[in-house]
Amino acid sequence: MFKAPRGTKDILPPEQGYWKWVTEKAAQISQLYGYQRIDTPVFEDAGLFLHSVGEETDIVEKQMYTFDDRGGDKITLRPEGTAPVCRAYIEHGLHNLPQPVRLYYFGPIFRYERPQAGRFRQHQQFGCEAIGAADAALDAEIIDMAWTLYASLGLKNLTLQLNSIGCRTCRREYLERLKGYYLSHAGSLCRDCKGRLFRNPLRLLDCKNPACHELVKGAPRITEYICTDCQAHFGVLRDCLAALQIPYEVNPYLVRGLDYYTRTVFEIQPVDVGGQSTIGGGGRYDNLIEILDGKPTPAVGFATGLERIILNLQKQGLEPPAVSTAKVYVAHLGAEARKEAVRLSARLRQAGIGATLAVDDRSLKAQLKQANAQGFSHAVIIGEEELRTGSVVLRDMAQGEQTQLSLDEAIRKLKG
Ligand code: HAM
Predict the structure, then answer these.
(1) What would the CATH number be for the domain defined by 327-415?
(2) Among 59, 60, 80, 114, residue to substitute to test ligand 1 (most atoms within 8 Å of Cβ)
(3) I need a surface site. Which of 153, 186, 364, 376 has the fewest CB within 10 A?
């Protein structure tokens, strides 16, 4: 028997209400903040992610779905959404538009991870990218959008972790200090970290291995090394967050799993479970467009996993608003009545009334039982008598009351 591949999931009808709720809220908020939708392909040239996410990251080293296609091109199923949006920004000359360009997206993301609660090999992200401005007020706007999305769904007990990891210039001295610190503890490092110590020491702060994680506590703090410009930028961001009354915690060891960040990084986490199940995260990436061969262009963005939002909604007992489904069940008795029922169902739908036709020859009792079980508010019934008089029986399923009337009258009643 075939099963959905490990780390993937089917979204069955009972869960669709959550998806509709969350995606509609996210799209509404994006539009309120002036963001426009962009869709990029599910797969890209593998090189795009090697250059942007970083060769020394878990995503590139261990998690990408990469393959040669039949034409011999190296293809990767997108493991994140920012690099594709930047690729599109450059490819379509979006720098010619008024800046910053504000974009949002939804789409599947693929990472070969060890599946567990809230961690999938295919998950769905909602993300926003604001490209073309360095102003820290834009970082605050992005954080505010994420915070507002969670709040508008009713999610509680979330914390915002915030850090500045400086720019290319000021990070250099910090990285030397960090290397020095970890060299003096080299014996306790995991194999990955030993390998990354010289090539990408910032990654060591993000290692999930318990021994490496323990070492983070004594590591030098980047906030003490960032240059005056980066400090000023961080100061403006903090002022804006205060103005927005968004509470946050500065975490000087917060780095993210992708290499393209500069200055601001942030993560939003449920209080009780912390970093293992971060619900959303992002930051500034002022060098990325240039790395991808565009003109130097500052940018900032965030993304959030829809499965993780829904998991937290369910944990907190929050339910999507009820949506009305098809209203009327069209029941019939006999071959002639079935033909008429097909025609009536079509007329009901043309009048904007959801109609579901009974199928297979079943007794009227069995048909009404099914209508009840599926939560229809009304049934329209056609039998011999109705065929003869050109009428229908309209039954109120909750009350059990029924009246014989013309289809036009039934439509008027159902619409009312
Ligand atoms: P990320 O932190 O790697 O950032 O992913 C964003 C969010 O996607 C996470 O906070 C989490 O909710 C969800 N997520 C990640 N991996 C999984 C998984 N395996 N299963 C379920 N959910 C997952 C990025 O991808 C950046 N592109 C965000 C960004 C946008 N930075 C700037 N702009």
Answers:
(1) 3.40.50.800
(2) 80
(3) 186
